[in-house]
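Hey all, quick one. A colleague (J.T.) asked me to put the FE2/S2 (inorganic) cluster job into the tracker so the inputs and the structure tokens live in one place instead of scattered across chat threads. No bug as far as I know, just bookkeeping. Sequence used:
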Amino acid sequence: MGEPIEIVLNGQRRRLDGVSPAMTLLDWLRGPARLTGTKEGCAEGDCGACTVLVDRLPVNACLALVGQMHGRAIHTVEGLRSADGTPHPVQRALAESDGTQCGYCTPGIVMSAVAFACGGEPPTPELIHDALAGNLCRCTGYRPIVEAVTRCAQSSGPWPMAPTIAIDTGSRTFDGATVLHAPRTLSELLQLRAAYPDAWLLAGGTDLGVRISHDREVPRRIIHVGGVPELTMLAEHPDRIEIGAAATYRQCLPAMANRAKPFAEMIRRLGSRQIRSMGTMGGNIGTASPIGDSPPVLLALGATLHVASIRGRRAIALDDFFLGYRRTALAADEIIVSIDMPLPAADETFDVDKVSKRRDQDISAVLGAYRLRVIDGVVRSARLAYGGMAATPARARHAEAALIDAPWNAATIERAVAALVNDFKPLDDWRASADYRLMVAGNLLRRLHMRSTGVAVELDAL
Ligand SMILES: Cc1cc2nc3c(=O)[nH]c(=O)nc-3n(C[C@H](O)[C@H](O)[C@H](O)COP(=O)(O)OP(=O)(O)OC[C@H]3O[C@@H](n4cnc5c(N)ncnc54)[C@H](O)[C@@H]3O)c2cc1C
Ligand code: FES
Ligand code: FES
């Protein structure tokens, strides 16, 4: 017998009776809840028209499943109006700045702006840009929208939102067209995985949610991993960071910014704030896409995965994890528990470059990540990894061999660039041609060298 999903919606406790746990939050809001202020544009996390706040963070309601939302506080645009009907200051500012025309994107933009204003970040152009990067507007143009958000964020401190109400979040099973299990302990999770190896293992749902929202798939069974403490933890050690597989990008960002800055800069370009509030590194590895952004970085750093099943635990070097296109070394009953990410030493170079058609909210055509040690002008160790160059994220072993024990100079780099053709036979697709990808991968190596000699610093600034 299933249990009821309960949420706090705009400050009111709500019980979602008779609702399948795999219904998207957007479908529930616009359907049974009759809150049509939240819009559907793309149904795949790109446009931001469906942005709502979940525990005060912006989230794409089209990708979030109601079963994932149990116990969480959700704010929609309808909840912003004060009791006497006065619009929220962000709404007023958008209207006064001519920041809306057809209005379709506006509720999503309002919710992203409210999240930003309530988050207490300084209203710098970079941060406002980042806060709005997941919201597309096809008719107004962004200047008046940015002006409105700047004005509001400067004018006052955080605005009050409805207080949250605690809901018991013990282990649950929700029933409907889909059965969704929400375990709260690792042993329950492993038992469920062993019993249902074909169930969808759901972390943030920014990949799997697209299959439900956009492709309208109805899975029979889902196991949600996001409530298990071993998977949501993050621990910093002197030489490494341990990242729970279900820790969100947002959760990882501060540690990365302090300890592995180029990784943090890449994460700020992964999806949007909405995607980073929900998406996880375990999901990025588990989905095993050749163009996933964190796997090449973790490969360059030499990460290890800790995986578990009811049969026991084991460690797998990420080098040995990706077996082929979307194929991994994970057994059917295993899950990724955590990622052990070594940190570069002070005398090592660590860098990451993401090349995509758009700067923000875009999947990489090529992503290069590098960790190397140069002592007295000679390369002593090198790990180069790329995304977008093969059926899996992969190391460039021939290029690494061309670097190791060679002088760190332009001639060595050219030998490494030439070796890349032995490492990769990239695909042609609409994102980039094979020739372009190879050329970019080589140019990124040249840029790495130029940066280390100071030449590219000026070019990067242009
Ligand atoms: C609009 C948009 C923009 C995006 N931009 C980027 C981008 O710039 N770069 C990028 O790399 N990706 C991007 N993505 C893809 C996605 O956000 C990432 O892959 C994300 O890391 C997936 O994490 P998740 O927790 O949401 O995974 P989910 O969707 O929950 O799961 C993804 C896969 O991982 C498996 N999985 C999850 N947790 C585990 C676990 N603990 N053990 C084993 N398997 C597990 C699931 O079973 C599933 O197969 C984007 C997606 C969208 C919708
Ligand atoms: S409808 Fe476009 S992001 Fe959700
Ligand atoms: S106002 Fe029309 S899409 Fe933004």
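Adding what we noticed when we looked at it: Residues 230-461 form a domain with the Uridine Diphospho-n-acetylenolpyruvylglucosamine Reductase; domain 3 fold (CATH 3.30.465.10). The mean pLDDT is 94.
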